[in-house]
Design goal:
Oligomer: single chain
Strand content: 15-25%
CATH superfamily of the largest domain: Ribonuclease H-like superfamily/Ribonuclease H
Helix content: 25-40%
CATH architecture of the largest domain: 2-Layer Sandwich
Shape: elongated
Number of helices: 17
Radius of gyration: 31 Å
Distance between the termini: 72 Å
CATH class of the largest domain: Alpha Beta
Number of domains: 4
Number of strands: 15
């Protein structure tokens, strides 16, 4: 009997839910199935349909067999909450892809003002650890691989029974010491700074987004992540070896996050928030008021020379023929010096030193300039070599006549001439962003968007 329980004697609850969709915030539960194993090893089962108070999509009805008619007279979750808590409280919450089931229950409880928490074990992770040689660990794969007996697939109690079967099979196939070590690892709570609510571990999303670390009075740090929960917790797991992480851990009092549809949205939100709030622990992506670029000025007769221009003076998003971008004028000048030295260009014609007409520049005296300053090289030839030297620095031209969008999950990123206007989830939000005007051109935003230019889709104009 002892092998049916966790080593400390904690009772077990094998849980499965059927829902109206995959989003725990937007979608609702339609059925709950629980297999309970108590301290003496006895097993009891419980299941109920749940009125989700919203229509069940057709494809979900086809998969589960649960129709709107079946749940019409079923109790709502609020009516079932007390019984669900009684069956789960103090038990190890075991589910397949437990983040899904646990997330749905937490959100249902949150809607009625209850902060539900449990120690959670995911049998997908358990299968990966105990049977690492297999590529798939979904429930159908476990059924086929281990010969589990199927009672009522895609119904809550039927799938909870499958999880219970797998639990017994897994424990029988491995030594108690191995099972104990894996369970300890998979159910361990991450270490957090003492000032943070431990419940944040359950609340942190798994997907992409931006996170904000707040101190007592100020915003400390903004970061982005493909996997928010994993990235946020990594700050604290490494605080013993990094002075920066240790400082953050000591100062953080609250964590906030914004979920995004994908990585590009997270990068754009991160850059915008850092520039807006200037967090004390962020060094990159700061506001840059001296942003500049290089453009060529045509003097006729084939001669073109570089000019350093600032974003504050030009509309960089709409200006073609620019090279850069640079944080400040000194950086642009240094790039011109490096290009001149590497390609034998004239420092005088590049504006890097003042040279009287017909007199050699200093680089020519050192045999590093091919002599455009003294007529040894034709102006047009010098211009061609200058354009070739600058080619890799040329900014991409905005490929559309107007604004564009980039779709990531449920998010629509609205872009206009390399400027990020914001994220919309509806047509009304999209047009509201377009009507608010375009922000100042930003180097970091340009670099993020230029890498995904092939994913941008032009927006039509609403008639």
């Amino acid at each position: 009997m002892a092998r049916s329980l966790l080593l400390d004697g904690m009772p077990l609850a094998f849980v499965d839910l059927e829902t109206t969709g995959a989003n725990p915030v937007r979608d609702r539960i339609t059925e709950i199935g629980i297999v309970e194993v108590v301290e003496d090893g006895s097993v009891s089962e419980w299941s109920t349909l749940v009125n989700p108070e919203t229509p069940i999509p057709g494809f979900i009805q086809s998969m589960t067999g649960i129709s709107d008619a079946m749940v019409a007279d079923a109790p709502t979750f609020e009516c079932l909450a007390a019984e669900v808590i009684e069956r789960l409280q103090g038990r190890l919450f075991i589910a397949h892809n437990a983040r899904f089931d646990y997330g749905f229950l937490k959100n249902e409880f949150r809607r009625i003002g209850i902060d539900f928490r449990a120690t959670v074990l995911c049998t997908v992770k358990l299968s990966r650890r105990l049977f690492p040689g297999y590529p798939s660990h979904g429930l159908d794969a476990l059924i086929a691989r281990h010969g589990l007996t199927v009672y009522d697939r895609h119904r809550a109690l039927g799938d909870a029974r499958l999880i219970h079967q797998f639990w017994h099979l897994a424990r029988a196939a491995h030594p108690e010491e191995r099972i104990a070590a894996v369970l300890k690892e998979l159910t361990a709570r991450p270490s957090l700074p003492t000032h943070l609510d431990p419940g944040i571990v359950d609340d942190l999303p798994e997907g992409p987004g931006v996170y904000l670390f707040h101190g007592e009075t100020a915003l400390l740090y903004v970061g982005k992540a493909k996997h928010l929960k994993e990235r946020v917790l990594s700050h604290f797991s490494g605080d013993h070896s990094s002075a920066k992480e240790m400082s953050l851990a000591q100062q953080v009092r609250r964590i906030e996050w914004i979920e995004t549809g994908g990585e590009t949205g997270a990068l754009l939100r991160e850059a915008a928030l850092i520039k807006q709030h200037q967090p004390t622990h962020n060094r990159q992506l700061r506001r840059n008021m001296e942003l500049c670029a290089i453009r060529l000025v045509d003097h006729g007769m084939g001669l073109a020379t570089p000019e350093i221009v600032h974003a504050r003076d030009l509309d960089f998003g709409r200006q073609n023929g620019l090279y850069g971008l640079f944080k400040h004028r000194r950086e642009a000048e240094q790039v011109l010096i490096d290009l001149a030295d590497a390609h034998g260009l004239c420092h005088g014609l590049l504006g890097l030193e003042k040279v009287a007409t017909g007199k050699p520049c200093f680089a020519h005296q050192l045999h590093k300039c091919k002599g455009a300053c003294v007529g040894k090289e034709k102006p047009a030839a010098h211009t061609v070599r200058l354009v070739q030297a600058l080619a890799k620095l040329q900014l991409k031209s905005w490929p559309f006549s107007g604004p564009a969008m980039l779709k990531e999950g449920d998010d629509v990123l609205v872009i206009d001439h390399w400027c990020y206007l914001g994220t919309a989830k509806s047509e009304d939000e999209l047009w509201a962003l377009l009507e608010q005007g375009r922000p100042q051109f930003d180097r970091d935003t340009y670099r993020i968007l230029s890498k995904v230019a092939n994913r941008l889709v032009p927006l039509g104009i609403r008639g």
